[in-house]
Amino acid sequence: FSPMFFPGSRLEAEKDHIEDFAPEVAWVTRSGNTDLEQPIAVRPTSETVMYPHYAQWIRSHRDLPLRLNQWCNVVRWEFKHPTPFIRSREFLWQEGHTAFRTKEECDVEVRQILDLYRRVYEEYLAIPVVPGKKSEKEKFAGGLYTTTVEAYVPGSGRGVQGATSHCLGQNFAKMFNIEYEDQQGGRSMVWQNSWGFTTRTLGVCYMVHGDDDGLVLPPKVAPIQAIVITIPNSKITDEMKEKMNDAAQEMTDSLKAAGVRAKLDARDNYTPGWKYNHWELKGVPLRVEFGVRDFENGTCVIARRDNKVKETVNIADLNNRCAELCETVQQDMFNRAKEVRDANIIKLTSWDGFVAALDEKKLILTPWCETKESEELVKKKTTTESQGGAAKTLCIPFEQPPLEDDAKCFITGEKATCWVLWGRSY
Q1: Helix (H, G, I), strand (E, B) or coil at 382
Q2: For the CA atoms of 154, 398, 165, 338, what is the dihedral angle to 10 degrees?
Q3: Could you tell me which residues come within 8 angstroms of residue 263 by beta carbon, excluding any fewer than 6 positions away?
Q4: 273 membership: H or E segment, kind and range
């Protein structure tokens, strides 16, 4: 754990770093009614907080690699477009900070961590992402290069940076004098990485899968996978109602024993319809309905949250069917999100149609010359030619379509060196 408050001199030690973060840094200038002699920065990220300590901890090649991770809150004073979960002034994240002897070790870890982030999105949140490298303009301030996983929000047509894994190179090591005695008895600078994953993941999940009835949670991350609801009626006796509740509790306990995260909603002060709405709003993947006729027949009804499809099953088969449906719903949610995402990525090889595609909520893959000037030109032209906002590079995908030897950059006409994904972004 590193401190949230630290002297401004720490932040200012790395010129490129502070220039990028300066507009978002919050400063403490008063204590009660007393002005502070020196303003204190509130942590926007922890590189400049932690690395002076790395210089003390790393003395020998035997101290490497050093790999630390922390969960903490950071503050970035976002004024323009604060959005709950997506862009907020304070957020919780996990940040890793590692040091190695060689760049090759850094390169390996950068991709390993990024693939872990990809798996969280795709295998747990059922959200397809595009892994790739950030442009020089969009990379982490002060770093050597940045890799990212980019998601797509169909409701807004915007891309969203899901998580990043940075190779910092030796820049911070030079600033904070993080060096060690190597195996030959000489002095060497460390190579460093940092990587982070935030509560933004929740916002992406809600926006990609949610509908007009509320949340739609993938089963793997849903706190409750199946909610059991009894449907009594006014004609049955209290004894019959008690037997139904006992049977519903047995069903719930049996589901839990089978590994399904289940809960019985036995509240008698709400109608079944109210309960349906309540748990739909919370995004519970499966609803198990248990009425009087079901009780008599030894059956129940399972309703899926993602597509509202219902089916009747024998209570004896409930455990297996719920487990099967959890897997099916998880895969179906990913497949639907991927189908929508893929349908909204188009290829263009010239400026013609670029702004129109943006306004149609598309992401655009183009041949590009990888210059900051061309990126600024795209930003300027999209700002002036559309009311929807500027476009930016999201990433240079690792999986590249074939690029012809004589391919030209879509905006400058210079020789293209790669395909890049553009879009409006949060």
Answers
A1: helix
A2: 30
A3: 224, 226, 227, 228, 252
A4: helix 272-281
Residues 267-284: what's their mean pLDDT? Answer: 96
Beta strands at 66-75 and 90-100: parallel, antiparallel or unpaired = antiparallel
Q: Is the pTM of this model over 0.90?
A: yes
Burial 291-323, CB ≥16 within 10 A → b, else e: bbebbeeebbbbbbbbeeeeeebebeebbebbb
Strands (E), 32-80: 34-42, 66-75
Residues in a beta bridge with 70: 95
Task: Compute the radius of gyration of the chain from its Cα atoms.
Answer: 27
The total of other beta-carbon atoms located within 10 Å of residue 75's CB is 17
Could you report the per-residue pLDDT of 77-86, keeping only the tens digit for each? 876 777 888 8
Distance CA 357, CA 345 (A): 9
218 residue type, one letter: P
Q: Work out the burial of residue 83: count CB atoms within 10 Å of its CB; fewer than 13 is exposed, 13-18 middle, 19 or more buried.
A: middle
In whole angstroms, give the CA distance from residue 63 to residue 60.
Answer: 5
Q: ω before 52 within 30° of 0 (cis)?
A: no
| DSSP assignment of 114-156 | HHHHHHIIIIIS----EEEE--TTTSPTT-SEEEEEEEEETTT
Measure the N-to-C terminal CA separation of the chain; round to a whole number of Å. Answer: 29
Q: How confident is the model at residue 14 (pLDDT cuts 50, 70, 90)?
A: low
Residue 69 φ/ψ, nearest 5 degrees: -135, 145
Residue 416: pLDDT over 70: yes
Residues 6+ apart with CB under 8 A from 326: 219, 220, 225, 260, 285, 286
Phi, psi of 220 (to 5 degrees): -65, -25
Three-state secondary-structure class, residue 238: helix
